[in-house]
Amino acid sequence: MNQNEPAGDYIVRAIARQGTIRAFACRTTETCREAVRVHQLSPLASAALGRLMSGVLMLARDLKRAEDSITAIIHCQGPLQGLTVIGEGDATVRGLVSQPVVETRYIRPGKLDVGSAVGAGTLTIIRDLGLKEPYAGKVRLVSGEIAEDLTYYLAVSEQIPTAVSLGVSLDQQGVRLAGGLMVQLMPDAGDEAAAWLEQRVAGFPEISYLLGEGFNPHQILDLLLGDPEIRYLEVTPCAYACHCTRDRMERNLITLGRSELEKMAADPNGIQLECHFCNQHYHFSQAALQNLLQALTANADGD
Ligand SMILES: [Zn+2]
Hints:
This protein is α+β, with helices and mostly antiparallel strands and 303 residues long. The chain folds into two domains: 10-240, Hsp33 domain, CATH 3.55.30.10; 246-302, CBS domain Like. The chain is built from ten helices and 15 strands. It has helices at 29-39, 43-59, 114-118, 147-157, 190-201, 207-212, 217-225, 246-255, 258-265, 286-302; strands at 10-16, 21-27, 69-76, 82-88, 92-97, 106-108, 111-112, 121-128, 135-140, 162-171, 174-185, 231-237, 239-240, 271-274, 281-284. It is globular, with a radius of gyration of 21 Å. The N and C termini lie far apart (61 Å). The mean pLDDT is 93. Zinc ion binds at residues 242, 244, 275, 277-278, 280.
């Protein structure tokens, strides 16, 4: 292992097959462990959120600026009820599960039934690139297994033929290993490249198996693409992190509107807000809320 292949969580981007294919692979073990710690996730919630976070982290490598973001929202009828993941241009990710504790079910021994825990529903992807309107696309879920759903989304909504594989393996201690890979055909790749990729992906071992065997993201791409000319581009460390601040919480309060704020400001104890992505608490005293109301009034007068 050289210094370009860090020991912790990271995403690597690569180009292969004379530029007809671009690929991403990531290891997200610590990222998933942090999500499990923050939200006290049960095994199925850990696997579903871990997979979606890994996928979004790779999608977010296309973002040009650190402050751009990709949000993936799953509305679903299975026991998990829903998932939200936000990946930022700085390779941080955060997320939550609507129902973090659900009964554990398996497809076969050792293989969690994520598809049933998610169930039928929709996947919405929102790209916020700092433009006036964020770009959003929505598809129905194919299987609830997350990787297939992202593949379907990319094919239908963005017309990019993509192979996605995501894996989170768990043991008694929690997340043992997590990661993923994403391979896309470039627009001029042609049918031959498409057939070649389909063949390579079919029967390729599961990500969690490969990580368990000690493969790092670089080696997983090597194994999948089998291209001695593969060109590795940047390597980016990734992590679970929330960017909430008191300022952002204050702006959220303001968007609730005057009457809601007045109700809160009537309480001599003020209010306690909690960020759902990191559980950070923010206390706003009665005086602070009254100041916000005054600022709102001053702004309204200025209009
Ligand atoms: Zn937060």
